[in-house]
Specification:
Layout (H helix, E strand, L loop, with lengths): L2 E6 L13 E2 L2 E2 L2 H9 L5 E6 L2 H8 L4 E4 L11 H14 L6 E6 L7 H13 L5 E7 L9 E3 L5 E3 L19 E3 L3 E5 L20 E5 L9 H14 L1
Parallel strand pairs: 1-4, 1-6, 4-5, 7-12
Antiparallel strand pairs: 2-3, 6-11, 7-10, 7-11, 8-9
């Protein structure tokens, strides 16, 4: 199976130039980019961005540039459009991925062995649509969440009428949150298919979790500090 990495980074962010901010002596995007380069599975490497500074930083690490159109570089742009645009540019190069490793430029929480294990899962079971890192978080289980009702009072998100829902987090089942560090897609079963799971429909419907202990993606100055801490503890 042809395996290709796609590093995605948008220039239009609230935290200016966050994807190339220095973290432990390297630009932030260098951590996911180099983890993929260290993978024993990936053959080709691309970066998609609307920002030339991001494209150039990744290019210096061995990534081929994809100039992302302005309409796909807005805060409300969809990953689906970004990925399909990149796949089109790859095809122009004669590169047709079977497995696409999506790397998020604003997360340092990527290890080469994690990528390899996720790729292996798809190679061992081609019916999967994606393998994605997740963290377990029972404290924020959706059964424990509330929303503001019509009178401004709290109410549950779900209709629990006739059911007894335990307030004990150990009794309410699994709760996983997707990490935004990298995702491994089986292209034909995910982005090329129809009707994937909301809200990330590009992942398809047969998504296998790869559980990790922690992950950090950068949106604030505090997240940069948390990223440095993660690097020192994990890399």
């Amino acid at each position: 199976m042809k395996i290709v990495a796609l590093l995605n980074g948008r220039g239009n962010n609230t935290l200016k130039d966050k994807n190339i901010r220095e973290v432990c002596g390297k630009p932030l995007l260098a951590y996911p980019a180099q983890a993929a380069m260290q993978s024993s599975r990936i053959e080709d490497f691309y970066v998609s961005s609307d920002d030339e500074k991001i494209r150039s930083a990744a290019h210096s690490l061995g990534y081929k540039k994809i100039n992302r159109p302005e309409e796909f570089g807005r805060p409300d742009s969809n990953q689906d459009d970004v990925i399909l645009h990149a796949l089109g540019k790859m095809l122009e190069d004669g590169v047709k991925p079977d497995i696409l490793v999506i790397l998020l430029a604003n997360s340092v929480s990527v290890k080469a062995e994690w990528i390899d294990r996720c790729v292996d899962e798809i190679q061992n079971d081609p019916t999967l649509s994606a393998v994605v890192p997740v963290v377990s978080d029972l404290d924020h289980h959706p059964f424990r969440a509330k929303r503001r009702g019509k009178e401004g009072l709290l109410e549950p998100f779900f209709d629990f009428e006739g059911q007894k829902i335990s307030g004990n987090r150990q009794e309410i089942g699994d709760c996983f949150f997707l990490c935004h560090n990298f995702w491994v897609l089986n292209v034909k079963n995910s982005i090329r298919s129809k009707g994937g799971q909301a809200p990330w429909e590009f992942m398809g419907n047969r998504i296998k979790p790869f559980e990790v202990e922690s992950s950090v993606d950068v949106h604030t100055e505090e997240d940069l500090w948390r990223s440095e801490k993660w690097i020192k503890e994990n890399l």
